[in-house]
Amino acid sequence: MRIIKYLFLLFLLSLVALTIFIATQKGNFTVESSKIINSPKATVFNYVNDYKNWPKFSAWIKSDANSKLSYSPISIGAESSFSWDGNNDTGTITTLYTKGNDSIVQKMDFNDRSSDVFWSFKDTVGGTKVTWKSKGKMDFMMKVNSFLTGGIQNSQSKIYDKSLANLDKSLNLETNTYSTKVNGIVKKLETFYLRQSFTSKLADITRNANAVFPKIITFCNQNNIIMNGKPFVIYHTYDTIQNIAKVSFCVPIKEQIFTSQGSDILSGKLNAFNAVKTTLNGNYTYTKEALDKSHAFFKNNNLIADPKFSHLAIYTVGKRESKTPSKWVTEIYFPIKPKDIPVTYKRVVKDSLATPPPTTPIKKEDQSEF
User: Fold this and answer.
1) pLDDT at residue number 358
2) What whole-number distance in Å separates Cα of residue 61 and Cα of residue 351?
3) Is the Cβ–Cβ distance between 254 and 267 less than 8 Å?
4) Which of 253, 254, 271 is closest to 312 using CA atoms?
């Protein structure tokens, strides 16, 4: 009986000693995990920056099918937030600020514990290196859990690793889900627009579009100019050997206007034309396949491309409407050269008494600036 008392006392002393040991451990923690994601940096950043994509890769959320999810009215960028309430975990994460395509800073409250969260995105061989890090302070129960699981870095980094692996799989599915279809010959109607034009590397077209389109749209809003459709790009030239193109980034407007001299935003008019229309559903990286199908259609149907410009691409559903690449829709129009109308000659018998008919000059069609 006395031995049992001694053993019990020893157990209590050991428990007290362990409790003191755990309580006196450092309260600060840092958890960090990195993975190379097989997708472009901008694509990965935009995907993570939208909380509506988090249930597709977050290991915490995917492990609890009964979690109740809620989002702020705007789920993207600074001041957006996301909350979940599950059987095991509850939490809220808020985006404090972002640096375009490079980093995201967030604040997370997870099971009544707060932490600072940091994301970084860097171009690297094979895709994008994504680093996910959180820093905070542990309460006593968190210290106990950390002690039992071999340290918070060991236990939490496994969850981060699994989430990043899910992120890679989700993006692979998104970026590889696409389709291209040649719709046939259509009539493209006359369009007035505002534009900015310059020469760009082919690889920079999307980045330049993301910068120029908002600028023109803001110009329209500030000057009460009514827009009339989706933004589009006119490719005046498209050089795949030099990998450059002369382009105009355009926003269609309802009525023709004339901008002031010296403005970097100019007005234009695109005359109606016949075109081969091709639709790309999915990531812009598959544009080449859409172009190749269009060129094959020209060849198979003995069509001749109009040299006024290479082609026109309308962002029917783009990044402004969806951050999910598989949902993007791009309509591409290749102008067709009008067929020459054969000229017929009528033999006229010379009559000295007949009055020669007056000659009427042939009126040239109005020419588009393209």
Assistant:
1) 41
2) 95
3) no
4) 271
Two structure tokens written together for 123: 């171009």
Model confidence at 152: pLDDT above 70: no
Nearest-angstrom CA–CA distance, 46 and 165: 17
- Give the rounded distance of the alpha carbon of 181 from its chain centre: 21
| Nearest one of 216, 276, 208 to 244, comparing CA atoms | 208
The residue behind tokens 């006229």 is 348
Supply 79's token pair.
């001041």
Per-position DSSP letters for 213-279, written without gaps between them:
HHHHHHHHHHTTPPB-S--EEEEEEEETTTTEEEEEEEEEESS---PPTT-SSEEEEE--EEEEEEE
List the structure tokens of 7. 């053993």
Angle between helices 140-148 and 2-23 (to 10 degrees): 110
Reported as a single tens digit per residue, the pLDDT across 84-132 is: 888 777 889 999 999 988 999 999 987 777 889 999 999 998 899 999 9
* Segment holding 285, helix H or strand E: none
Residue with more model confidence, 18 or 259: 259
Chain centroid to Cα 160, Å, comes to 24
> What is the DSSP code string of 288-346?
HHHHHHHHHHHHHTT--B-TT-SEEEEEEE-TTT-S-GGG-EEEEEEEBPPPPPPP---
